[in-house]
Write a structure and sequence with these properties.
CATH architecture of the largest domain: Alpha-Beta Barrel
Strand content: 15-25%
Largest sheet: 7 strands, mixed
Helix content: 25-40%
CATH superfamily of the largest domain: Metal-dependent hydrolases
CATH class of the largest domain: Alpha Beta
Number of helices: 11
Number of domains: 2
Strand order of the largest sheet: 6-7-8-9-10-11-12
Structural class: alpha/beta
Radius of gyration: 24 Å
């Protein structure tokens, strides 16, 4: 309750009248206000009418003022502060990015679910449809045990969904998932060679933080690389590598300059100049908080590997080792759990065992990713070729 509140003024955050009194922030309809109080000892337990800056009063339930306290480890808090600073947009504050997962929170999720295939797989394919993409039944979704998809593409690269569409679908499922499990659903924005989708996600989340309280969004980027040889062995065709950089700051000028240079000749993030895994790591590793993951280590060139004169399982192990050798302690995980990809490789038990064993031997955690390109966050869908 309020002991005495002789004066309470509410003004837009962009034009605060005075900083000399007790104050806090209040968000209504996505707009920040600056609340100034005088003689008010316990505003959190009050309900009152506050004079609006246009001269009329608006009711405010002070029990429901937003929680502006920053939660998480110091590393997670500093990560969100850095993002807010680099946006250049006044009014985006760290507490509004509670739904953006921090590096420590993300690492914990990776570690805790490394042996939990069901966390990453939406459902299993029927035996008569093992080689049919997106034929899985979504039983893990229906049971609310599918908990994370760290690999989603949007219209900013070769996906079908806008960032807002991705977040809305994640929220719809995340609200049910959180009710069943008591933890948020995790989804990653990982467009090819661009962070524009991540920038959009930050702005969308900050505009209405409460809407996204039951999801955690990983800000990432999938960087396309190629290797012509490995350990002295020259491939007949350069081997494709896709590297995931996770928990990035998408507003970082140095990162944006690196990605802009990749597509400088075409202007298209799907058509970049050839770089190696080392080049990709060097372009992002200055962001000390980010981690690296290896995307679909047995895809998309498994057919090429089979027709090469080197054993495909040995090649897969060497590719995973090459990733770990370059990324070191920053190389956190490799994708290993799948349910939506096409071709025999996704149901090849020996190839699956090869990936699992390589991860265990190299100290990499195992994760999954649906690699969403279609119109549902639960299916891979078709890639969109944009010129």
């Amino acid at each position: 309750m309020i002991n005495s509140c002789s004066k309470v003024n509410i003004n837009p955050l962009y034009k605060p009248i005075s900083f000399g009194r007790k104050h806090s922030t209040y968000t209504q309809n996505g707009i920040d206000y600056f609340i100034q109080t005088s003689g008010c000892k316990n505003i959190q337990n009050s309900k009152m009418f506050i004079p609006h800056y246009h001269g009329f009063s608006i009711p405010i339930d002070c029990k429901n003022l937003p929680n502006t306290k920053l939660e998480g480890t110091q590393k997670d808090i500093e990560y969100k502060k850095k993002i807010c600073s680099n946006t250049g947009i006044y009014g985006i504050k760290p507490y509004k990015l509670a739904s953006v997962i921090g590096p420590d929170e993300f690492k914990d999720a990776i570690i805790n679910n490394s042996s939990n295939r069901n966390f990453y797989v939406t459902g299993e394919r029927p035996q008569d449809k093992l080689n049919i993409p997106d034929s899985n039944k979504l039983e893990n979704v229906n049971m609310k045990i599918f908990g994370g998809d760290y690999h989603v593409h949007t219209i900013n690269s070769d996906g079908s969904l806008s960032v807002e569409d991705v977040l809305n679908q994640a929220v719809e499922y995340g609200n049910e998932y959180a009710k069943a499990n008591g933890t948020p659903f995790i989804i990653g924005i990982t467009d090819h060679n661009t962070v524009e989708g991540c920038k959009q996600a930050v702005k969308i989340i900050a505009s209405n933080p409460d809407k996204y309280k039951n999801i955690r969004v990983v800000l990432g980027v999938e960087i396309s690389t190629k290797e012509a040889e490995l350990n002295g062995y020259k491939f007949k065709k350069p081997e494709k590598y896709h590297i995931l950089a996770m928990c990035i700051d998408p507003f970082d000028p140095k990162l944006n300059a690196f990605l802009d240079d990749l597509k400088s000749q075409s202007g298209n993030p799907l058509n970049i100049k050839a770089i190696s895994v080392q080049d990709a790591y060097d372009g992002v590793c200055h962001q000390e908080q980010c981690f690296f993951g290896l995307a679909h280590p047995a895809y998309p060139d498994i057919t090429h590997r089979i027709y090469d004169d080197k054993d495909p399982y040995e090649t897969t192990k060497e590719l995973i080792k090459h990733f770990k050798d370059i990324t070191g302690d920053r190389g956190l995980y490799s994708e290993a759990y799948y349910s939506s990809y096409s071709g025999d490789w996704s149901t090849d038990p020996e190839l699956y065992k090869t990936i699992i064993k390589a991860c265990d031997n190299l100290g990499l955690y195992k994760a999954g990713g649906i690699d969403v390109h279609g119109e549902s966050i639960f299916y891979s869908g078709q890639r969109i070729k944009r010129k």
